Every structure is written in C-alpha cells, then in structure tokens.
C-alpha cells in the first residue's frame, strides 16, 4: 500500500512538472 501511494505521488509530481515545463515552453514560443 505504501509503495502504491509513493508511486502515485511520484506520478502526480511528474505530471505537475511536465505541465509547468510545457506551460513555460508555450509561453516562450508565444510572441
């Protein structure tokens, strides 16, 4: 159970980081 929770937390953090990275890239590309 603990391993599953840690995996979910890691996935959530990874998704959040990807969203921030994509947002920064889109903002940089926008004029």
How many H/I helical runs? 1
State the separation between the terminal residues, measured CA to CA: 47 Å
Low-confidence stretches: none
Choose one word for the global shape: rod-shaped
Whole-number radius of gyration? 14 Å
Biggest β-sheet strands, sense, barrel? none
Strand content: under 5%
Number of strands: 0
- Estimate the helix proportion, in percent: over 70%
Mean model confidence by pLDDT:
81
Structural class: mainly alpha
Order of helices and strands: H
Secondary structure layout:
Blueprint (H helix, E strand, L loop, with lengths): L1 H28 L2
Q: What would you say this structure looks like, in words?
A:
By secondary structure, the protein is mainly α. The protein has one helix and no strands. It is rod-shaped. The mean pLDDT is 81. It starts with a helix and ends with a helix. The longest helix has 28 residues, at 2-29.
Looking at this protein, list some descriptive labels.
31 residues; rod-shaped; mainly alpha
Short synopsis of the structure:
The chain has 31 residues and is mainly alpha-helical. The protein has one helix at 2-29. It is rod-shaped and about 45 Å long.
